[in-house]
Structure formats: structure tokens, C-alpha cells
Design brief:
Elements: E1 19-25, E2 32-36, E3 41-48, E4 51-55, E5 58-62, E6 66-70, E7 76-80, E8 85-91, E9 103-106, H1 109-118, H2 130-142, E10 147-148, E11 151-153, H3 158-169, H4 177-183, H5 188-199, H6 203-220, H7 225-231, H8 237-248, H9 252-263
Amino acid sequence: MPSRLAHTLFDPDSTPVPAVARQIDFVDYAAEVPVHTHRKGQLIIALYGAVICRAENDIWIVPPDCAMWIPGGIPHSAKATWNAHLNYLFIEPGAAALPEKCCTLAISPLIKELVERLTDEDVDYAAESHVGRLTRVTLDELVTMPQQKLSLPVSTHPKIRAMADALVSQPEDRSTFKVWAKRLAISERSLARLMLRETGLTFGRWRQQLHLIIALRELASGVSVQNVAANLGYESVNAFITMFRKTMGSTPAQYFAVQRAANA
């Protein structure tokens, strides 16, 4: 297995230019990127496969045709699927009017192509050079991209964090809310209030969002719909597809067909 860590490939803070792009193929790097931080903000674009990031007490999924934005100075870690092929765009603070909080963005084919083009360029370019102008266009386009709801709030509260860690590692666990309250030594009413206060979601909605994030990661790495449904503890494939369609607006097959068409 590759032992090189992706975040050691390049120091984005070594150059003061507005933005610099780099490409990572996780066939060549370890799948897990430990917690780290840098001055520049980071845009993570998934070309193939998917990556899950942890930042600001949230878990974020970056499926194909989407990107995660991490503002500068925020500690973050990541875990990529075996086939993940990513483009990074590191952006100097103040170079673009991007969100001050982490978020997932829909990415247009134009931005994907521009960032891909910039991965071939040197890091020290003049502002008025051709690369400088391409960078400016890229950043201007990027700020118009809509946000996607592909995050899972986790919280630092010990009881919520314990439950989250357990369900992330064993997503097939279909224990009821009553069972979880007993495990955490807290009343159902108190746990319900705690969930809403710490995550903004009910337990059912929170677990559904977790399943969606894991499903997107697994489907992007080539796991079949049948196996994903089974791994998440669904009684039938149809029940899983119904959940996916309600949250994403399409079935898994339709969703990834659109992604493949966009990449063609």
C-alpha cells in the first residue's frame, strides 16, 4: 500500500500567488490524510472516486462533479476511496469572495476544465500573465457556484460524538433511538433535545444523512447498489433507492449517469 501522504506533496503556503492547482491520484498516495492546516483555503474537486473530509465538527462527502471548500486556517483530515483522482485548488485568503465556513459546492464543467488546466502551471506566475488571467477567471466563476447539502454535523459533545463514531464505523447498525438512549445512559427526551441542539437534526434525519454520505462514497468507488443497501442495513434495495431519491432527487443510477455524462 502507498505510504506517501498527499498533503506532503506540496506546500501551498510557499507561494503568495492568488491560487495554485495540483493533481492527486490516490493510487500513488495513502488513502488517509491526517489532520493538517495551511494558510491558503483549499478546494477539493473529485474527478473520479470520492473523498470524505472531517472539518469544523462536520463530516463532508466530495462525490464526482462536486467540490469541498475549506477556508484557510481550518484543521481538516480526509479519507479517499481507492480510485480517487482529485484536483486541489489552493486559494490565498481574500483572493475570492468564497464562504467563510466549510461547504460543498456544485462544480461546472468550465471550472473543472480551468482547474485541470492550472494543474500544469508553475506556482510563481505574474498577475498579468496568461496563467494569472486564467486564475482570475477561475476564481470569478467559482464564487457563483451553488452550495450542496452533503455534510453531516457531528458535534464535540461526548455523547453525540460517541454515537457518531460508532455509526460511522458500523453504519449497518439499525438500533432504534430508544436503544441508543439506553447505550448513552440518557433519557430519550434528553437525547432528542441534545441531538437537535448539537446537530440541528433529529436522530432519524441525522442517520439518513450519514447513510447518504456513505452511500455516495461507496457508489463512487464502484460498489453495487445491492451491496451498498445491504452494508447500510436496509431491508431491501428498493428501500435504499427510495431514501436516495428523496434526498438527491434521483435514483443512484440516474445520479451517476449524469456524472458520467458530464465527464465524457
